[in-house]
Design brief:
Layout: H1 27-37, H2 48-58, H3 65-68, H4 81-85, H5 103-106, E1 113-120, E2 126-132, E3 138-143, H6 166-177, E4 187-190, H7 199-206, E5 209-212, H8 222-231, H9 246-257, H10 269-279
Parallel strand pairs: 1-4, 4-5
Antiparallel strand pairs: 1-2, 2-3
């Protein structure tokens, strides 16, 4: 079937809506389909890597434009396999994966284990969320846009100005978590977003152990995912979250922490946290955030 006319811009195929419609089998699909198509002919066997090499060698390292339009990625130049394998986030190492988190965090028996995430809004605005797994107590992080965020010309490779860069998130978490007594700041589980690239310094500054959930596994942070859903009542998708200041976020957190929860025997998260604080001899904590 003939699709739209293909337009080229530089080395790429141009706007995605102008891609050619085609069967677009990948070399891997072709290589593994051949034994099914011609099972009795051993000469009709080839690896997908050999197909790739043949195509790119003919084009002296790049594909001809008529072939580029058939690729899903639209790349004329091939990314070396070694480079592709090294694209993982360098700040995440095996010892900080969720599999290494203490078992006490999983069964919610011991308080002080938190889950965190960002709620994203219009124009890269964001609010940080921290939820304690045992009590479901919630604290919200104010992440205002940095100076220059609304400038007409963005600086290439410049610092993140949206307000939820690694330093901003580290400082916001540190400021909130240090309002808690030590026994209520044992660990934090986050997804693998780059906003947590400075987790090591956060641990040094606060004593909070940071662990990362597996990619695309929101069920690894169920308490936080549920809380983020509740927050959308106050902060709908597609709205500018930067217009709310710290006092506004504290008010919303106060409301959530005052809701009775079935899982807590119809106590509120604030009441559940108060019990823990009393058992610690009355150590103080900011209950508005």
């Amino acid at each position: 079937m003939h699709g739209p006319t293909v337009r080229f811009k530089g080395r790429r195929h141009g706007p995605r809506q102008d891609r050619r419609w085609a069967k677009a089998w990948s070399p891997e699909q072709i290589a593994n389909r051949l034994p099914l198509e011609v099972p009795d002919d051993e000469t009709m066997r080839i690896s997908h890597e050999a197909i790739y090499q043949s195509l790119f060698v003919q084009g002296r390292g790049a594909l001809r434009r008529e072939l580029v339009t058939c690729l899903r990625t639209g790349r004329a130049l091939r990314v070396p396999r070694a480079r592709a394998k090294g694209r993982g986030k360098g700040f995440i190492t095996p010892e900080v994966m969720i599999s290494e988190r203490p078992a006490e965090a999983a069964d919610r028996a011991i308080p002080g284990h938190w889950e965190g995430d960002l709620v994203i809004g219009l124009d890269k605005s964001a609010i940080g969320t921290l939820v304690e797994r045992t009590t479901r107590y919630t604290m919200l992080l104010h992440l205002p846009p940095m100076e220059g965020h609304d400038q007409a010309v963005k600086v290439k490779n410049g610092p993140p100005l949206a307000g939820h860069g690694a330093e901003a998130v580290r400082d916001a978490i540190g400021a909130k978590i240090m309002t808690l007594p030590e026994h209520l700041r044992r660990s934090l589980t986050w997804d693998q977003g780059t906003e947590m690239a400075q987790h090591a310094k956060l641990r040094i500054d606060t004593g909070l152990a940071v662990y990362f959930a597996n990619p695309h596994s929101p069920w690894k942070r169920p308490t936080n995912e549920n809380t983020n859903g509740l927050l959308r009542q106050y902060f709908p998708k597609g709205t500018d979250l930067s217009r709310w200041d710290g006092d506004d976020l504290d008010a919303v957190a106060f409301t959530l922490n005052g809701r009775p929860r079935k899982t807590l025997g119809w106590r509120t998260p604030a009441e559940a946290l108060a019990v823990l604080l009393e058992s610690d001899g009355g150590a103080g904590v900011a209950t508005t955030g």
